[in-house]
Structures are given as C-alpha cells and as structure tokens.
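Forgive a beginner's question, but would it be possible to get any protein sequence you like and the tokens describing how it folds?
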Amino acid sequence: SDLEYAQDQLELWLEEGCSVIAASDHGRFVGIASGKEDLEDFTVKAVFVNEDHRRKGIGRMMIKYFEDNHQDASSYRLELDNKSTGAAAFFDHIGYQALPVIIMRKVPSDQ
C-alpha cells in the first residue's frame, strides 16, 4: 500500500534532511508526509493517507502544518507523476496550481 511504501521511505527522507510528520487516529498510524526546504522554496516530497481515512482533512492538515512552519518560503511546490490524478485534484482543491512544465531526460547508452 502507499502507506507501507511511505513507512519504508522514512529512513531515506530523514537521511535527505526532510521534515517528516505523521497523523494518527486513536493511536493508529493513518498518514505521513515529508517535505524539504530547497533554496527559497519548500518542496512537498510525499503525502500519504490511509485509504479508509481519506477525505477527512488529514492530508490538508499535514500540508497546512508544513505551510505554517515554513512561512518564509517564497512558494510551496511538489511534483506529481501523470498517474496521480487523485493527488492532483487534492492539491488543486487546496490552492496549488499546475505549471506548464515539460520534463525531459536522456538515458546514457552503455558503450
């Protein structure tokens, strides 16, 4: 599940210097979010909420925590893959705007 993936990523996020917050419901772990200050921006690295706890304000609460605690950031940003339609709708709903960005990459060939 997404939440299990996030738990596995926790050590990596901490090694990268990310801020990590968790949400619980009556002692049960239900969400996790990570983010990091990058130059002047604050980048949301990940937000995961257990499926049966979605649409209850948990994701919004975690994002608000980051925004409230990084008010000196010139902007808050994140990157989503094109399969994250639910996440895109969530972030749009809480005021984030999609940017017209094209990301390109080249994989070096073995020689």
The mean pLDDT is 86. DSSP finds three helices and four strands in the chain. The two ends are 38 Å apart (CA to CA). Strands lie at 19-25, 28-38, 41-49, 75-78.
